[in-house]
Design a protein that fits this description.
This protein is an alpha/beta fold. The protein is 49% helix and 19% strand. The N terminus is likely disordered.
């Protein structure tokens, strides 16, 4: 027997032969180069194989033995997923048995008697090297968490299916876990890996019945290339049910995008479109399956055009910053207090482009910081211009996106902009949203604390739009609270929405922070808010967002009222 501490330094060889003399001869030949195990028959061999399966490098297997012969051992090895990759060299004196053994899974043979020692050593060495190389390939071939193909192997095999089995009608499916980062944050990475592994297992079971291959290509995105299916709802239901049953105490929602087979369409173009369909459902709590169609293709082309044109739009100042005023309604008449900077895009060929088209797009591609920095610079320049030309300093609210929070140079960038325009930090109010908090609460709090120490004021935007707003209020240092406009749109005396607004105003009073109500459009809404103690409002009741030249009359009017 061998010393346990040697198992990890030298290859381990199992010699199986019913003749002790044969075991001894092979032992003498191999002992200088390998650690050795011995078995007198197939039954004992199988016991040792199962015990040392993760350490065995090769088996030298006699074919003719009592209790269990070599062919039975080969049969058991080939039928066991755990053991089938252990290489076997058969030992035989019968020429007729060699071909049968090779067909049964043996990789080579050594003839008896063992009189060519160098040949035996060479064959054992060659098979071990081949097996080690194959094992390296197997390890690289599969993702260790999901058990599915790794990125490079998946791409290679997809290309082969597409090239060599062109008659196959193959669909591209992209499966994703909704808000997986939150699941990881709440339950820990180990739990998250269990979820990823389970989805891999479910997909593997699905592909046992359907021709195809799959990969966890990135993070929590799974790519499935399979023969054309008709009922995608049932497929998603199959996946979702398996995950819900495995993790009954955690809400794990899957979403699935599909690009059905289309003649001569490159498979990775199909996957791009399947992912587009999948991502279009982000934040959709009703629909979890989307099949890519022609309208999505046009949207994809349009989005790509916007992405391509971003750089020239910035260089040519195609973006225009509009300003929506905020009024203090506890004064009579209401007093112009500040404004919010809002971006618009005047494209030379496409005309005015809605922020709803390009802001979510640039956010999803990590490009929104270019827009944010453009707005910061334009807003600061405009504040300084009105101060110098009109003698009126109007504080301005600008947005901080999630990606800005992770920018190590954020504080420096803002201070440079403020100093360049001769402003003080309190003239630029920084709006953060709940989504930034839920992505990384500790990072956001750290950044906000530094900015407040510099003198910037922090506004919590869209308060009440998500589930963690109250938790965010208790931990995030803020200076202003903005009520989400969805609460304001339907308020009237005695309505549920109005009672919620009153509750938010009570919370704000307790925290001693002013409140801005967004989306105020009617006199009734304004009166209700004033009567409830709301200090600041913005919305179409006072003014829509305006370009600078149209905003200036509001400033002139305010100056005249203050004389």
């Amino acid at each position: 027997m061998i010393a346990a501490n040697k198992l990890y330094h030298r290859h381990l060889v199992l010699i199986v032969d019913d003749q002790e003399i044969n075991r001894d001869v092979l032992g003498v030949i191999l002992e200088d180069n390998y650690d050795l195990l011995y078995a007198p028959d197939g039954q004992k061999a199988m016991e040792l194989i199962r015990q040392y399966h993760d350490k065995l490098s090769i088996i030298l297997l006699d074919l003719m033995m009592p209790v269990m012969d070599g062919f039975e051992v080969l049969d058991q090895l080939s039928s066991d997923q755990l053991l089938r990759n252990i290489p076997v060299i058969v030992l035989t004196a019968e020429k007729n048995a060699e071909l049968k053994a090779l067909k049964a899974g043996a990789l080579d043979f050594i003839t008896k008697p063992f009189d060519m020692h160098e040949v035996i050593l060479a064959r054992v060495k060659r098979i071990i090297e081949l097996s080690d190389g194959q094992q390296l390939i197997r390890n690289a071939e599969k993702d260790p968490i999901s058990g599915l193909y790794s990125r490079n192997f998946f791409k290679e095999y997809v290309e082969r299916i597409y090239s060599y089995q062109s008659n196959m009608h193959m669909d591209a499916i992209v499966l994703n876990i909704d808000h997986f980062h939150s699941i990881n944050n709440l339950n820990g990475r180990i739990f998250g890996d269990k979820v990823l592994q389970k989805i891999g297992d479910v997909i593997t079971c699905f592909l046992n019945d359907v021709y195809g291959i799959a990969s966890r290509l990135e993070a929590d995105y799974y790519y499935i290339y399979c023969e054309h299916q008709e009922d995608y709802d049932s497929i998603l239901e199959l996946f979702q049910s398996a995950i819900s049953e495995s993790f009954p105490n955690t809400a794990i929602i899957l979403r699935m995008g599909v690009k059905p087979w289309k003649d001569e369409l490159d498979p990775f173009v199909m996957f791009d479109r399947a992912k587009t369909a999948c991502d279009m459902m982000r934040g959709n709590y009703v629909t979890h399956l989307m099949i890519f169609n022609e309208s999505m293709l046009q949207k994809e082309i349009y989005n790509q055009r916007l992405l391509n044109d971003l750089r020239s739009a910035l260089d040519e100042h195609q973006f225009i910053v509009f300003y929506q005023p905020k009024y203090n309604i506890q004064c009579d008449p209401p007093k112009l207090s500040s404004a919010e900077a809002l971006i618009r895009w005047k494209h030379p060929e496409l005309g005015m482009i809605s922020p709803g088209d390009f802001i979510p797009l640039f956010e999803s591609y990590g490009l929104i910081h270019f827009i944010d920095e453009y707005v910061w610079n334009e807003a600061a320049r405009q504040i300084a211009k009105w101060r110098d030309e009109l003698g009126f300093t109007l504080p301005m609210s600008v947005n901080l996106s999630r990606t800005d929070i992770f920018d190590s140079n954020l504080e420096q960038k803002l201070l440079v902009i403020i100093n360049k325009n001769g402003l003080t930090p309190d003239s630029m109010k920084l709006e953060v949203t709940e989504s930034a908090y839920t992505d990384n609460a500790n990072q956001l709090i750290s950044v906000i604390e530094k900015l407040r120490m510099d003198g910037f004021q922090i506004e919590m935007d869209d308060f009440g739009s998500g589930y963690s707003s109250l938790n965010m209020l208790s931990s995030l240092p803020i200076d202003v609270l903005k009520i989400d406009m969805k609460f304001i749109q339907n308020i009237h005396q005695g309505s549920k929405e109005f009672r919620l607004v009153e509750l938010i105003l009570d919370i704000a009073r307790y925290l001693n922070v002013p409140v801005v109500a967004e989306g105020v459009e009617t006199q009734e809404q304004c009166d209700l808010l004033r009567g409830s103690g709301c200090e600041l409002v913005q919305g179409y009741f006072f003014s829509r967002p305006l370009p600078p030249q149209d905003f200036e009359p509001l400033i002139h009017k305010e100056i005249a009222l203050n004389r």
